[in-house]
Amino acid sequence: MSLFGFGRPQPTSAEKIAAVENELRVVAEMHSRMIKLCTLKCVDKTYREGELSKGESVCLDRCAAKFFEAHQTISEQLQREGAARGFGA
């Protein structure tokens, strides 16, 4: 039994480190997917200019915002479902 009476053992340092490493991995994968998808959608494949055009920049900004919004919505839903099944912290 824990000190706070929740009945769950407290995570060890190794478990905390593993959780942080897993979270970093997930964030890195999400970033890579976003870069790939938004680049395919927004950046002209002919690379006519050395800099992004205004249209490409706006497209990338909107794409990234939508990607993060969708990720946040999905994460919240998964947390709710996990908590309902008793997997919450």
UniProtKB/TrEMBL annotation:
Q: Name one Pfam family in it.
A: zf-Tim10_DDP
Q: Does the keyword Metal-binding apply?
A: yes
InterPro entries from the xrefs?
Answer: Tim10-like (IPR004217), Tim10-like_dom_sf (IPR035427)
Report the subcellular localization. Answer: Mitochondrion inner membrane
Sequence ranges assigned to domain Tim10-like in this UniProt record: 18-79
Q: Which domain of life is it from?
A: Eukaryota
Membrane topology term reads:
Peripheral membrane protein
Which UniProt keywords are given for this protein, alphabetically ordered?
Answer: Chaperone, Disulfide bond, Membrane, Metal-binding, Mitochondrion, Mitochondrion inner membrane, Protein transport, Translocation, Transport, Zinc
Family per similarity comment = Belongs to the small Tim family.
Swiss-Prot/TrEMBL domain comment: The twin CX3C motif contains 4 conserved Cys residues that form 2 disulfide bonds in the mitochondrial intermembrane space.
What is the recorded function of this protein according to its Swiss-Prot or TrEMBL entry?
Answer: Mitochondrial intermembrane chaperone that participates in the import and insertion of some multi-pass transmembrane proteins into the mitochondrial inner membrane. Also required for the transfer of beta-barrel precursors from the TOM complex to the sorting and assembly machinery (SAM complex) of the outer membrane. Acts as a chaperone-like protein that protects the hydrophobic precursors from aggregation and guide them through the mitochondrial intermembrane space.
**Oligomeric state and partners?**
Heterohexamer.
Q: What is this protein called?
A: Mitochondrial import inner membrane translocase subunit
